[in-house]
Design goal:
Blueprint lengths: L4 E2 L2 E2 L5 H12 L3 H13 L4 H21 L5 H19 L10 E6 L7 H12 L3 E4 L6 H11 L3 E5 L6 H13 L4 E4 L17 E3 L2 H9 L18 H7 L1 H12 L3 H23 L4 H16 L6 H11 L4 H16 L1
Helix pairs in contact: 1-2, 1-3, 2-4, 3-4, 3-5, 4-5, 5-8, 6-7, 9-11, 10-11, 10-13, 11-12, 11-14, 12-14, 13-14
Length: about 350
């Protein structure tokens, strides 16, 4: 869940010039300046939600775009994200709303280290009058369930930024349901318009922090079934994950990359296998196709294109005993060629 941006103007009455000024401070890693800008908005009467959603979250998406296109380096992205984390903390310190609506737990899917969007959601929900426990990035399912049994919250707000983490998200949702606690999902990892949230058993999905507040206020999770989720039609995705290392090795043999790039390619193939497993879990090959197109875009922006067709073909051969996996991979190869 994050903020939204329409044309050249941020939503909530905050002009794009404010977002540009904030981005300028992030570009210079000017922590004091960024904090000062955000607190100045609060002092001028701008609500906490607008500052977090329409400035910080909008800027964070632009940071991601700049990294994707290669105009910002990884260190620049990390430095800017750290500044925004400090800003969120400073804004959160100004929240005075007393908890009166119930208790929710906010967490990121295990393996998901992008926690800023979830933190923004947590603070916006807290500003709306909920008691919020923010568990942070990469929360193991067993730890989350243990905490749910101890604290008995009304709902879990689960953040997933990367669709490659959907299999783990499904396991976390299943664990929460078994503990009797419904899940409100958020983040692009659940697909465009949250199309994969229901497939993994979530009670609802919201695109933004404001959506999270609306969904909680409407008590969308009330009466939502808990307990074990319906079984998936087959467990081919489990078999694919079991063959993950084998598939990576097969792809490396097929590509035969220089030693200095071998680790990066191995990591990329491992993520591809995760995307394939996720696409099988939610029964939607578009998940894998979108991942392959994104991977191609990332590599092209950095001056080189990985031999995606070779990698996808080697994955298909390594998984020849799994027909649905092969079908998804063939569709992805066609999409990569067309792209």
């Amino acid at each position: 869940m994050s903020g939204s941006h329409d044309g050249g103007t941020a939503t909530g009455g905050i002009g794009s010039d404010v977002v540009e000024a904030y981005l300028d401070r992030l570009d210079r890693a000017d922590q004091a300046g960024a904090v000062g800008l955000a607190l100045g908005l609060l002092d001028a009467g701008v609500p906490v939600t607008d500052v977090l959603v329409d400035v910080v979250a909008v800027a964070q998406r632009e940071i991601g775009r700049r990294w994707l296109t290669g105009s910002w380096s990884v260190p620049q992205e990390h430095a800017a994200t750290h500044v925004s984390e400090v800003v969120v903390g400073a804004v959160a310190a100004r929240i005075t709303a007393a908890p009166r609506l119930g208790h929710v737990v906010t967490a990121c899917v295990e393996g998901e280290w992008h926690a800023l969007a979830a933190r923004i959601v947590a603070e916006v929900v807290r500003a709306a009058g909920w008691r919020v426990t923010f568990l942070g990035a990469s929360v193991p399912a067993r730890h989350l369930v243990s905490y749910l049994h101890q604290s008995g919250p009304d709902a879990v707000l689960l953040s997933c930024v990367q669709p490659t983490r959907l299999v783990r998200a499904a396991r976390m949702v299943e664990s929460c349901r078994a503990a009797g606690v419904p899940v409100v999902a958020g983040g692009p990892g659940f697909g465009p318009d949250g199309r994969w949230a229901a497939a993994v058993g979530a009670a609802a999905w919201g695109a933004t922090a404001r959506d999270a507040v609306r969904l909680l206020d409407r008590q969308v999770f009330t009466g939502h079934p808990t307990g074990p989720s319906a079984p998936t039609p087959d467990d081919e995705y489990v078999a694919v994950l079991r063959h993950r290392r084998e598939v990576v090795h097969a792809a490396l043999r097929a590509v035969d990359p220089p030693e200095e790039t071998a680790d990066d390619i191995a990591t990329g193939v491992a993520h591809l296998v995760d995307a394939l497993a996720a696409s099988l879990r939610v029964r939607d090959p578009e998940l894998l196709i979108d991942f392959v197109r994104w991977q191609d875009e990332v590599l092209t922006a950095r001056g080189g294109r990985r031999l995606l067709d070779v990698v996808l073909a080697s994955c298909e051969r390594a998984l020849s005993e799994h027909p649905r996996a092969g079908h998804h991979l063939r569709l992805a190869r066609v999409a990569a060629t067309d792209g």
